[in-house]
Amino acid sequence: MTGTILQGQNFIDGGWRTGAVGFETRNPSDLDEVVGAYSKVGAAEVDEAMAAATRALPGWRSFNMQARADLLRKAGDLLMARAIEIGALLSREEGKTLPEGIGEANRAGQCFHYFAAEVVRAQGEWYNSMRDGHNVIVTREPVGVVAAITPWNFPIALPAWKVAGALAFGNTVVLKPSSFVPGCAVLLARILEDVGLPQGVFNLVIGDGRATGDVMIDRAQAVTFTGGTETGRAVLRKAAETMTKAQLELGGKNAFVILDDADLDLAIETAANAAWVQTGQRCTATERLIVTRGVHDQVVERLAAKAQGYRIGHALDADTQIGPVANEKQFAENLAFVETGLREGAELVAGGVAVERRTRGYYMTPALFARSTEAMHINHHESFGPILSVIAVDDLDQAIDVANGTELALSSGIATTSLHSAEKFRRESKAGMVMVNTPTAGLEYHVPLGGRSPSGFGPRESGASSAEFFTESKTSYINHGVN
User: Fold this and answer.
1) What CATH number did the domain enclosing 270 receive?
2) Which of 220, 197, 270 is nearest to 53 (CA)?
3) Residue 192: how many other CB atoms lie within 10 Å
4) Residue 474 burial by Cβ neighbours in a 10 Å radius (0-12, 13-18, 19+)
5) Which residues are catalytic?
6) Would you state the pLDDT for residue 482?
7) Judging by DSSP bridges, how do beta strands 145-149 and 172-176 pair with one another?
8) Same-domain pairing of 121 and 200
9) Is residue 444 part of a domain?
10) Are residues 336 and 387 in the same domain?
11) Which one, of 374, 408, 407, lies nearest residue 391 by Cα?
């Protein structure tokens, strides 16, 4: 895929549609390279996509379960067979290193394989009734047409687990990817077309966020959204107007605690991975490092050396460890965030500056702040970049208080060799996910993903919990004593 310009369109009711407004995407590693040429559709075309999904719903919800599982399995097979091609496009359009891009493409395939198996897993429960001659059956039915709205930081994995989950439970889908990185979603649409998904079951629209999203939410029975917390609040307000079922996976200001008794080699590697790998562009990335005073200075010194040692470069270069920031808007916000930390009085001990490489791109060095305080802006607001700040604390109790000191409650972690401390932290952390001696980022597709409000809203994503969102339960009371 290197050097090829992907010609992208919109997929509506089984056909490819060119929108009225054309645009290009450029490689954040090389701003002189055009990656894709796409077009945005307007409200009328989005409405057509929603109508197509509505028409296709009865047929798909009654589609033979083995045949449905086979289609999802084939889609997963194709995603994995084409992982190098998809990963290269992802790396060129979003800026992940090539191994990360290929890994994400494989993860997308694994998600389809997982949900292919979910299709044939028994859904429903049978109960004895309190009344003679009766029984009670609880079944799950598709929620309906699902509007899926995905961000730019995981342009194939996020669409995959939303779309695969929705389709597995008999729903139809309209997907709106981020206009920063629509290429992988276009390839996903082509794969679903290739495997023979019935017309209208899956639709892809590329459009402006608010206008496109409003039409989708108005016509859908459910909306699944991943993105920033403020945008999530707007989605929730819009969904409330029509009582559309909502699933929101939103921002995080994730804390990782290092105690005096931690294995420091493991703790340093874990914190650095979670904070800076993938350019910090993960909602579960560590942004606050809370360190007890006995090891504080050593942790700061070693992390500063770690930050300075990363090889920053073009996403497709074999020796690159951290690629560019994904887009100009995020790049400017990252640099402004660093400036805010300096104005607040935090000490920038490493990185946080724009750098030049062999090609013109959005390159910055991983930032490490020391001597920051809990009250600072940089310790309460999500940066969504490779920016880590260190807060010194006296003990585990204070560390837990500081970790819980922001309204965002997505992911948290602790490095310790004490089972007692690990369990105390696990119980008292308010985050939706807790990691012990492992990075706050790096999730698995077979278990629930999500945080407490305002880091999330509604049923959790991924794994068995997906059924809670993508289905509605029906309780049936049956009098079988009637002749």
Assistant:
1) 3.40.309.10
2) 220
3) 26
4) exposed
5) 249, 283
6) 80
7) parallel
8) yes
9) no
10) yes
11) 374
Q: Give me the residues paired with residue 372 across strands.
A: none
Asked if 43 contacts 219 with a C-beta cutoff of 8 angstroms, the reply is no
How far is it, in rounded angstroms, from Cα 200 to Cα 330? 35
pLDDT tens digit sequence for 278-317: 999 999 999 999 999 999 999 999 999 999 999 999 999 9
Burial of 42 (0-12, 13-18, 19+ CB in 10 A): middle
* Domain region containing 308: 254-436
Q: What is the pLDDT of residue 236?
A: 96
Q: What does the chain come to in residues?
A: 483
Beta bridge partners, 343, equal none
- 143 and 10, same domain (yes or no): yes
Low pLDDT (below 70) residues in the chain: 1-3
One domain for residues 246 and 160: yes
Strand partners, 26: 34
Distances (CA, A) of 436 to 5, 267, 379, 440, 450: 43, 10, 21, 9, 17
pLDDT of residue 211: 87
pTM: 0.95
Residues 201-234: tens digit of each pLDDT:
999 999 988 889 999 999 999 999 999 999 999 9
* pLDDT (0 to 100) of residue 281: 97
Residue 62 domain-assigned (yes or no): yes
pLDDT at 1: 41
- Same-domain status, 62 and 110: yes
253 close to 406: Cβ distance less than 8 angstroms: yes
Q: List all residues 6 or more positions away from 423 whose beta carbon is below 8 Å from its beta carbon.
A: none
Token pair 């939706």 is at which residue?
Answer: 432
* Pair 354, 397 in one domain: yes
Residue 344 tokens read as 């607040």
Is the domain of 368 the same as that of 459? Answer: no
* CA–centroid distance for 398 within its chain: 30
CB 375 within 8 A of CB 401: no
Residue 400 in contact with residue 310, Cβ under 8 Å? Answer: no
- Strand 254-258 vs strand 456-457: parallel, antiparallel, or unpaired? unpaired
Residue 483 in domain: no
Domain count, the chain: 2
Contacts of residue 3, defined as CB under 8 A and 6 or more positions apart, other chains included, come to none
Residue 341 has which token pair?
């930390």
Q: Starting from the edge strand earliest in sequence, which strands make up the sheet with 433-436, in order?
A: 347-350, 367-370, 387-393, 286-292, 254-258, 411-415, 433-436
